[in-house]
Amino acid sequence: MINQRMLERITRGLAADVSSCERTIDGDYILDLYVPNIDYCVLTTEEWIWSIGRRRSDGIVLASTTTKFYPDSSEYECVWLR
Predict the structure, then answer these.
(1) Predicted pLDDT of residue 2
(2) pLDDT surpassing 80 at residue 1
(3) Strands (E), 1-82
(4) Secondary structure (3-state) at 35
(5) What is the pLDDT of residues 23-77, one digit of tens each?
(6) Are 78 and 69 within 8 A, CB to CB?
(7) Which residues are paired to 15 by β-bridges?
(8) pLDDT at position 72, please?
(9) pTM listed for this prediction
(10) Maximal C-alpha separation, the chain
(11) With contact defined as beta carbons under 8 Å apart, do 63 and 70 qualify?
């Protein structure tokens, strides 16, 4: 693993790995549990999650390696932004 900072944050409980989460057709990660005030990452590809949004229609929380859930929209409420 090249990104030692990411590994350190996961080891210390300061980040969550979403690699095993189910994904949408758009490639977003479906979070079973959203914990505020921690970082999120995709450990298998060493990418940081940049935005997390709650879908207004059904409350499902999605994570993206882009800022697509910022700003708030009629479809998503931005709940986390890196």
Answers:
(1) 92
(2) no
(3) 15-17, 29-31, 39-42, 47-48, 51-55, 61-64, 76-81
(4) coil
(5) 999 999 999 999 999 999 999 999 999 999 999 999 999 999 999 999 989 999 9
(6) yes
(7) 39
(8) 85
(9) 0.93
(10) 39
(11) no
Look up residue 14 and give its two tokens. Answer: 């300061």
Domain parsing of the chain, residue ranges: 4-81
The pair of structure tokens assigned to 48 is 């940081």
Cα separation values, 29 from 2, 5, 35, 69, Å = 22, 22, 14, 12
CA–CA separation, 47 and 72 (whole Å):
23
Banded model confidence at residue 78, pLDDT cuts 50, 70, 90 = very high
- Output phi, psi for 42, to 5 deg: -110, 100
Place of tokens 């999650």: 49
Contact (Cβ atoms closer than 8 angstroms) between residue 24 and residue 57: no
**CA–CA separation, 77 vs 82, rounded Å?**
15
- Report the SS3 class of residue 60: coil
